[in-house]
Amino acid sequence: MKILTASQIKEADKITMNNQEISSEDLMERAATQVFKEIHERLQGADIPIKVFCGVGNNGGDGLVIARLLLEHSYKVKVFIVNYSDKRSPDFLSNYDKIKNLSNDWPVLLKGEDDFPEIAMGDFVVDAIFGIGLNRPLEGWVAKLVNFINKSSAFVLAIDMPSGLFSDKVSEEEDAVIKANFTLTFQTPKLVFFLPSTMDYVGEMQVLDIGLDRAFLSEITPSAQLIGRQEARSLYNPRNKNSHKGNFGHVLVVGGSYGKIGSVVLATTASLRTGAGLSTVFVPKCGYEIMQTSLPEAMVMTDENYEMITDIKTDLDADVVCFGMGVGRDKSTIVAFKELLKKTKKPMVIDADGLNIFSENNELLQYLPENSVLTPHPKELQRLIGEWTDDFDKIKKVQDFIRKYRLIVVLKGAHTFVFEQGNIYINSTGNPGMATAGSGDVLSGVISGLISQKYEPLFAAVLGVYLHGKSGDISAEKSSYEGMISGDIAENMGLAFSDLLSENKTNPGSD
Ligand SMILES: NC(=O)C1=CN([C@@H]2O[C@H](COP(=O)(O)OP(=O)(O)OC[C@H]3O[C@@H](n4cnc5c(N)ncnc54)[C@H](OP(=O)(O)O)[C@@H]3O)[C@@H](O)[C@H]2O)[C@@H](O)CC1
Ligand SMILES: Nc1ncnc2c1ncn2[C@@H]1O[C@H](COP(=O)(O)OP(=O)(O)O)[C@@H](O)[C@H]1O
Ligand SMILES: [K+]
């Protein structure tokens, strides 16, 4: 699903009104009706006090329409107008008139702190103060109102965006952003819903299709894309019946050191569970028996050194080389890595200490084959590209870095971002149970397994991240966040594929 910027959304609005010959008030009615339906479906007429806080722009206009529809269905609604400005949008004004005609209980005008209403624990708050029109931080009593709502124990539903959250930059005043339990957003998710520093304001998120112009939406170049099941499935290559294991490639995993051979077991298991035809590992001598007993399906080659990798002597013509897990940063390992880089011509997958070696030896990056995939977590990324001021600055710095070295970067996190030149793919699967030792090793094995099966490295990264997260979700269902371990993610890869290929699911853009 495409993620659009505020100005792209505004353009889509205009084109839609033109092509469908509807007014902006009609579009507001349509958008807010969708919100009403969602609320009504969940509350089923319940006798809950609903407090709708409306700004005086179009986000506030949406709030007024939602309130009107709720009142028409006999909900207990109280409307508050957050009078942050004397300017009112035309659609706000016409809906203000409509709600005044409907009920004797007129909206309450809030002009300062003294006007704040009581918000009780069981209240249902609708935040329709600001949406994508926010262009400066909240100030004074309006900022205090947001803080006041946040401090209440009420359930908060944000309309389009939590008020105070910018669509294109990070808000500096943490207290002046609504912390929603749920956000119903129009037509497209916003990039800030997925950034580590802003995602917590959004709560659960659902995208409402408000029928913006199809042709415009399909042609426009997005700022990023959310990868849900439908997008992941479109990347899947079905297997030909008439195939043999040679068709699915050969993965070479190079890694491990004394006490850290487990990371290679995890990555290699994951590569085979993802469908690699053959997997060979290259480990220090101490890893020989561990590998042979824990993963008989893999072939094992060893270094001359017992504890660490010092010389990667192999002429194996693998389809992909995965390097780094548990490998350490000894001088002799760095030399061996440099030699491996020089002789490898096909894209590689680099993780963990492989990344740290690059951070300390920048000159080695020039030897990395084009289209290689790096899989840092934020700390590894920071060592690689330096500090950033905020998440938007980080995105810019990653894009500069991949342009320079022609790479793909998989930035791991609660929402993993895959960067290629000019594009960002944001994953929708995964859960906090995956914050467990070794789940990153599994991911590098998954991506390597897909590259060996001739997926383009970019698609291997995007699909691999999706399937890895899905397998994590399946593992959590079976064993809970606390009880799952990273080996489960490798073991359940088959179920993640089955889920991807099953017929009975339709939800696009998210899971
Ligand atoms: N396709 C869609 O998605 C549809 C979208 N619709 C809805 O429209 C919403 C966007 O509405 P909007 O453009 O009127 O902006 P909104 O967020 O209400 O802000 C209002 C004004 O506030 C001002 N202002 C800004 N910051 C401020 C501050 N800190 N403190 C004080 N004032 C501040 C600024 O005006 P300024 O003062 O700069 O002139 C701004 O223009 C969108 O989120 C969605 O809910 C649907 O109705 C139809 C389909
Ligand atoms: N809260 C979370 N939600 C979704 N995925 C997560 C979460 N926490 C961690 N993950 C995923 O788990 C993996 C952790 O990788 P990494 O930090 O390299 O761990 P390790 O070094 O232990 O292998 C990444 O793929 C990351 O996206
Ligand atoms: K809002």
In short:
This protein is an alpha/beta fold and 511 residues long. It is built from 17 helices and 18 strands. The chain has an eleven-stranded mixed sheet with strand order 1-9-18-17-16-15-14-13-10-11-12, sandwiched between helices.
Measured as a percent range, the helix fraction is 40-55%
Q: Number of helical runs?
A: 17
The CATH class of the largest domain: Alpha Beta
Number of domains: 2
Poorly predicted runs of 5 or more residues: none
Question: Sheet with the most strands?
Answer: 11 strands, mixed
Strands of the largest sheet, in order across it?
1-9-18-17-16-15-14-13-10-11-12
In terms of DSSP E residues, the strand content is 15-25%
Shape: elongated
Q: Write the CATH fold name of the largest domain.
A: UDP-N-acetylmuramoyl-L-alanine:D-glutamate ligase
Rg is: 26 Å
Report how far the terminal alpha carbons are from each other.
12 Å
Overall structural class, as computed from helix and strand content, comes to alpha/beta
Q: Based on the coordinates given, report the CATH architecture of the largest domain.
A: 3-Layer(aba) Sandwich
The total count of strands amounts to 18
Q: What is the residue-mean pLDDT, rounded to a whole number?
A: 95
- CATH homologous superfamily caption of the largest domain: Ribokinase
Bound molecules: ligand NPW, adenosine-5'-diphosphate, potassium ion
